[in-house]
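Minutes, project check-in
Item: structure for the 550-residue chain
Input as provided by the requester:
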Amino acid sequence: MGLIICSACTVTHADDPHYYRRATPGKPALIECDVLVYGGTPAGVTSSIQAARMGKKVVFMSFNRHVGGMTSGGLTASDLGKADSIGGLALECYRRLGKNSDFRPSEAETLYLKMLNEEGVRVLFERCLESVTTQAAQIVSVTMETGETVKAKVFVDATYEGDLFAAANVSYYVGREPSSSHGETLAGQWQKISWKNTYQFCRLPISPYVEQGNPESGMLPEIALEPPGKPGQGDYKVQAYNFRTYLTSKTDGIPFPKPQGYDPGRYALLARFINYDADIEWKLTYTTAPMTDGPVQLRKGDSNNAGSFSTDYVGGNYRWPDGTYEPGSFSELPPPRRGMPVSLRELYEVREQIFQDHIRYQQGLYYFLGNDPQVPESLQDRVNQFGLDPREFRESGHWPHQLYVREGRRMVSDYIMTETNCEWKRTAEDSIGLASYPMDSHFCQRVVVEENGKTTVRNEGGFGHECAGPYPVSYRSIIPKRDECTNLLVPVCLSASHAAYGSIRMEPVFMILGQSAGTAACMAIDDNVSVQDVDYGKLKKQLIAGEQRL
């Protein structure tokens, strides 16, 4: 059986990247399968492949027109952590790709589609969840905006946001827990281990006000209006998102476009930083040295968090996970959320607005650096050596189709992965795979502080802290509580603290956990048990047979 691909949209919107366009409902249709995998991420890919290899009828639904999430949406290298922690389908993917770095996004997607085709997985694109029907702590069916209803025995939520499990009324958190929740050094605001000396405007006293030193003149754009909380206080803020653009320095590069609604005033803080001291050596390559804190990182691929100003849009994404945002800080962890605060359609529309604003911000940043008279000509010249690669992202104007959603909802299950797991102070006895990348968070906010008697701007929420070595991820962290849902697995938005999720949230780990989720789904079906009652001994044996490293 070959790959079955169906798109809900018949019109190609070239040069118009978007997150969401409402599907035109078709004739109601019923689809039945053993396993429904919802979410086009690498975890969705491996969940689908694994379940199909174990003989199950699998339907794999992607929200957009692509599979592979960030791996095909802009990442050109996979953050493996420790290479010897990678096994199973993840390792197979990298071996077949021939590399785990310096690959084109299109190469990754081509491979994923080929592997899905080999297993006869039915792939449906542009499927936006509309509703979930549950009964007695089980998902009975899901209905899509297209009018299709899917009935399955087991469901896998492989989205970056956790939309399926939230719609099924499974508990979750958004944001940063306070340090009192799990005793974590990296919890909450102003972490004890953080980017204190790097990415902090070279420790220069950069005034946040429109008129330098005059609070009455108002705040510059892209700075939080409310004061930061105290060390260890939690909040609902999530780490910054961006697009991982694929650039080229060749003569056929497409010049950075001037976005619709371009406003150079958004970059007033950056201009002030660049022009603070002519003796600062501005670099466009990756650096963590404070006095070479470049305004943005530019290279072929993986343009990312590097410097006080990067392609990260700090503070522009708080409503993305569930459509709501509650400002302020909290010293004690609020009760977990359940259900959808807004309708799914409203949520998608909110995300589309955020998506387009991120495009305007990042395209505007490139355009500003390459054209604005406030930017030194020497820096403009270096920026304009780059352009969008005409060989990538052809259907979306050579701009990535995937926003880097580094953190959405995080499920709350009977086992929460925390900093103690990453540091080997607590060990999960029911391992379904290994994670090993450092605990890593991009900045959550840009704030005004008093430093050395001067009012200045600083970035807050970024940290990077090595783990003690590859550590096991608990099976219980990818399954809901028994009284909430018994036929659902969540390999991406798993049960973890903000700190631990910063380590787990890497695409290779998602592939690992996706394979394990697909395996557990099949065993639950074969043994006619809930996902909570899957025999771990049998699961472990099956995972080892699948070359997972535990």
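Outcome recorded: Residues 344-371 form the longest helix (28 residues).
No further action items on this chain.
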